[in-house]
Write a structure and sequence with these properties.
The complex is a heterodimer of chains A (213) and B (159).
Chain A (H helix, E strand, L loop, with lengths): L4 H8 L16 H35 L3 H25 L8 H40 L1 H12 L6 E2 L2 E2 L3 H45 L1
Antiparallel strand pairs in A: 1-2
Chain B lengths: L2 H8 L3 H10 L4 H17 L10 H27 L18 H11 L3 H11 L4 H8 L3 H19 L1
The chains are: A mainly alpha (213), B mainly alpha (159).
Chain lengths: 213, 159
């Protein structure tokens, strides 16, 4: 006689080997691998985007007479890429044949070092980029026409050797603020892109630490 | 996760967690992944349990939700990364149990929609229609009709 599905179910699970639960000691094995792989993919993709973006911008800048801005942006972006590529190579040295916890901790420590290097760089490249943008605008043909028109007429602008020195004050102020708060701006930038991954990584480490208690 | 919590609050329900995870996965690796995720989430969300239902209902509901979420996530990833994905066939490799009839029943259950799978698993676990309704979010009358339909479909597949 044909068995009903209820009987198949009951009889099937009577055997002792059918309900063996997987061990829980490797709870985060897969998850830690996934999250690190995901970060690496995103990181690599962003570096490629920086190279492509700065190259396209350079071409665009050549066409639109903003050569200084184009070259400056290209050099800054590619310097960031070279430094981060080197940092990424050092990630390969992290031993994968350890427990998930040790692997995540090693990755976390690499990440902190990497962020610290980038924060330092940000305090240089944000103001540098701003200054390059200002200089580029200053020397652009249209701005020079505009300036000579203003300075050619009667004006109350204070000039030192024909240079409107007070105009430089807000620019220097902004660049200085960028140098001071460059690390904060970088943190904001990074959190926009990698914030979710960082949160998951921290949650995972916190979970494992609690599980280890 | 303290061993007390695992022993008292998860182990008595590990059977149903295993049965549910098996119904939503095609490989041992996925099964272990889903099972571990369920255990973790049960542990993580233990403080959100407000005793409005039985702990077992909470565990069933969580297990189903996690399996459904993971299956969705997986199919999304697949859509993004692999264009020529082939639905895995029922082979001996992904047969988890030594009982052949049970393996065939599982293969048949896997052919059902995700919600029907949940309904029939809870029915086979002899959960009352009211509780199944609560977990799935529908009336117990609807569950009764649905179960009759699912059983007919399973019989057809098995025959």
């Amino acid at each position: 006689m044909e068995k009903s599905i209820e009987t198949i179910w009951k009889d099937g699970f009577l055997k002792s080997d059918t309900l063996l639960a997987p061990k829980l000691n490797n709870l985060y094995n897969q998850k830690s691998k996934h999250i690190i792989e995901k970060f690496n993919r995103m990181f690599r993709r962003n570096l490629i985007a920086l190279v492509l973006g700065s190259t396209l911008f350079l071409i665009f800048a050549i066409f639109f007479d903003m050569l200084i801005l184009g070259i400056g942006t290209f050099i800054i972006c590619n310097a960031i890429v070279i430094v981060n590529k080197r940092l990424m190579n050092s990630l390969k040295k992290v031993d994968k044949n350890v427990s998930s916890y040790q692997y995540l901790k090693a990755f976390d420590s690499w990440m902190k070092d990497q962020l610290a290097v980038n924060r330092k760089m940000a305090r240089i490249y944000y103001p540098l980029f701003f200054m390059i943008a200002v200089v580029s605008i200053w020397f652009s043909g249209n701005f020079q026409v505009f300036i000579s028109e203003i300075l050619g007429k009667p004006h109350q602008i204070y000039l030192v050797n024909g240079f409107p020195i007070f105009w430089m004050l807000p620019i220097i102020l902004i660049a200085s603020l960028m140098a001071i708060f460059g690390d904060k701006i970088y943190n904001f930038d990074v959190n926009l892109i990698y914030g979710r991954i960082f949160k998951r990584l921290n949650d995972m480490i916190a979970d494992i630490e609690e599980l280890r208690k | 996760m303290s061993s007390d919590f695992y022993t008292n609050s998860i182990v008595p329900y590990s059977g149903i967690i295993i049965k549910i995870c098996r119904a939503y996965t095609d490989s041992q690796e996925d099964f272990e992944d889903y099972y571990q995720e369920v255990c973790l989430q049960v542990w993580r969300t233990k403080d959100q349990f407000r005793r409005e239902s039985k702990w077992s209902t909470w565990v069933y509901r969580l297990s189903l939700n996690i399996c459904l979420t993971m299956i969705k996530k997986k199919s999304n990833n697949r859509q993004h990364t692999v264009t020529d994905y082939v639905v895995p066939e029922a082979t001996e490799d992904n047969h988890a149990f030594s009982d052949e009839s049970l393996n065939l029943l599982y293969d048949a259950i896997k052919q059902l929609s995700e919600i029907d799978r949940a309904v029939i698993l809870l029915y086979l676990e002899e959960r009352p229609y009211k509780e199944i309704g609560e977990i799935i979010g529908t009336s117990h009358n609807n569950i009764a009709v649905r179960i009759t339909r699912i059983k007919e479909r399973l019989k057809k597949i098995l025959n």
